[in-house]
Amino acid sequence: MENSSKNLAILVGLAFVFGLVGAFVGDKLFVTNVYNGKLIEDHTYIEDSQIISAIKKVDPAVVSIVTSDTLDPKSLEIPAQDDLYGGTGFIVDKSGLIFTNKHVLLSKKADYKVILNDNSEYLAKFLSEDPFDDVAVLKIQNDKKIDFPVVTFGNSDNLVVGQRVVAIGNALAVYGNTVTSGIISAKGRDVVAYNDYGAVQNLSGLIQTDAAINLGNSGGPLIDLDGQVVAMNSAVQESANNIGFAIPINDLKSIISSVKKNGEIVRPVLGVNFVMLDKGQAKDINKSLDHGALLVESKDYSRPAIEKGGAADRAGLKDMDVVVSVENVDVMLENPLHKIIRNYNPGDTVALKVWRNGKIITVKVTLKSNKDK
Length: 373
Fold this sequence. Notes:
This protein is mainly beta. The chain has helices at residues 2-21, 50-58, 254-262, 279-285, 311-315, 337-341; strands spanning 23-25, 28-35, 38-46, 62-68, 84-93, 97-100, 112-115, 121-129, 136-140, 164-171, 175-194, 200-209, 221-223, 229-236, 244-248, 268-269, 274-277, 292-295, 322-326, 329-330, 349-356, 359-366, 368-369. The chain folds into 4 domains: 2-46, no CATH class; 51-140, Beta Barrel (Thrombin, subunit H), CATH 2.40.10.10; 156-254, Thrombin, subunit H (Beta Barrel); 267-369, Pdz3 Domain, CATH 2.30.42.10. The protein is globular.
């Protein structure tokens, strides 16, 4: 016992000596090991990771979005916290175009304030919204013709499960540019999302991540370790921990050119409501199927399977049809129906292979625009 006590005292003494000679200088930690007055080795540790580098690339283009019934557009004064509505967005064009979620916005006519990471503040106006995805575009009131910092897009098709990602957002509409990290948990998820006001939306082909997406993070970027935006944070599973969903950035890239050309988001539309089928669900319908999109009424009965007078209706598509391919491109969980349709333009005619009552038939559909009445 006496020898053990001496050994312990020696170890404690050495630890104390090492503690005295270690020192912080800026972002460097110098540690010098000394034994019996002799220098053994000298190490320099510098914290410089891919995550930190990625965040620095994106942070300047991430904005906190603030609005309120009492927001004064002239003074930009922030109202009392209880009156605030908030979320996140990211700048995609140097003129001040901002991507965010539809559900972040209080109304199309509201005044919005956006706060950049350098604490500069600007007014922004609603510009357009996607008729299908939970996506909207704001435009900064850029009277001084400022060139704003912009994000860089990655390729969401190349994401793999297990890949590390980082979410950035205005957490709780209070803590701007909060960073959380995690991995890609799954791809091709379909969810039914709703907000505090009960609005329901079916979202397809989402990326699932365990990077914490807190309230207020909606509309913010999900980035890879190269600092590229690979998705837009959109929803969380309320009854679980660390299950969040994001819209793949490849689904949103065409919005910029559409807004610049038309002043709003214009999409080709098929005019259907659908549910993507995994292999098991497809085989439950028919053993010959292992993928496809089932045309069916929405769960809240707000949307019929086939929109009356729409492109699908005119082509003769029916409730409970299963679309298995578009122009010989298979409709899969990782390549959902709406994503394939977006590769075309309003007015294009596309050939769909459709399962109906045990048979595969070909249906040609001329796509309409979401702006068509």
